[in-house]
Specification:
This protein has 240 residues and is of the alpha/beta class. The chain has a single domain, classed as Rossmann fold (3-Layer(aba) Sandwich), CATH 3.40.50.1240. The chain is 33% helix and 17% strand. The chain is built from seven helices and six strands; from the N terminus they run βααβαβααβαββα. A six-stranded mixed β-sheet has the order 3-2-4-1-5-6. A hairpin with a 2-residue loop joins strand 5 and strand 6. The chain is globular. The two termini are 35 Å apart. 41% of the residues are buried.
Length: 240
């Protein structure tokens, strides 16, 4: 049985400032670091993910997040360019206003194959790249538990990939994946038929007490409840 855990990076500078943050993203905000540390503490205490492989996007915000949580999984990080977020090309690092003025505002709904800027990707190119990456990762690590620290767009594309939906057009539904949220896909072989099941989406139980005086002790949570089955998994608003 193959288990695929997709973890979105912590809050990044690009989430709170109006910039197109790709490889030029300054990285995590202080709050994003705290989010990743809370996830690390949770995974270390509950041992709920017995990972065999840890993969991370090479974009700074995902790289930093993976480096923070890696000790809790006890694994080296395999950095993979193909699970990066949408690539902005020449618009990378620019403000929205500046990029739209120079290259035009993207309209993925009506023009999903138009690149966001020279050297960048269109929606169709992005989803094809990510779908190929997911297929490759699953094949290379078949039968293992895989953790991929990545981006909201990669997690969005996983739904298109596993549900076998068209990837060259913008989907009619929106996803709201929160920073450091866990998404878990499980592959099972039932009577010779291999199927994928969505086990959880938007699990951010480790963030529930950020900002309060007394934090949850994950060691106590592990004693009192089944950490795998009782974590919050309902969609919640994405930090913009």
């Amino acid at each position: 049985m193959t288990n695929l855990y997709l973890i979105r990076h912590g809050e990044a500078v690009g989430n709170v400032r109006p910039i197109l943050a790709g490889l030029r993203d300054p990285g995590l905000t202080p709050f994003g670091v705290s989010q990743a540390e809370r996830l690390r503490d949770r995974l270390a205490a509950t041992q709920e993910i017995a990972a065999d492989v840890l993969i991370a996007s090479t974009m700074p915000r995902a790289r930093q997040t993976a480096e923070i949580i890696a000790p809790s999984l006890g694994l080296p990080i395999i950095f993979d360019d193909e699970v990066q977020e949408l690539r902005f090309g020449e618009a990378d690092g620019m403000t929205f206003e500046g990029a739209w003025a120079k290259f035009g505002k993207p309209d993925f709904a009506n023009h999903p194959l138009r690149p966001i800027a020279p050297g960048g990707e269109s929606w169709g190119q992005f989803t094809l790249r990510v779908s190929n990456a997911l297929y490759r990762i699953i094949q290379e690590h078949a039968g293992k538990t895989i953790v991929v620290v990545c981006h909201g767009g990669v997690i969005d594309t996983s739904f298109l990939y596993f549900f076998q939906k068209p990837s060259t057009v913008l989907p009619v539904v929106e996803f709201s994946t929160r920073n450091t949220a866990i998404t878990h896909w499980e592959q099972r072989n039932r009577d010779g038929l291999i199927r994928w099941r969505l086990v959880k989406y938007n699990d951010t139980a480790h963030l529930n007490d950020i900002g309060v005086k007394e934090s949850v002790r994950w060691e106590d949570v592990r004693k009192e409840t089944d950490a795998e089955s009782n974590h919050l998994s309902a969609p919640l608003p994405t930090e913009e």
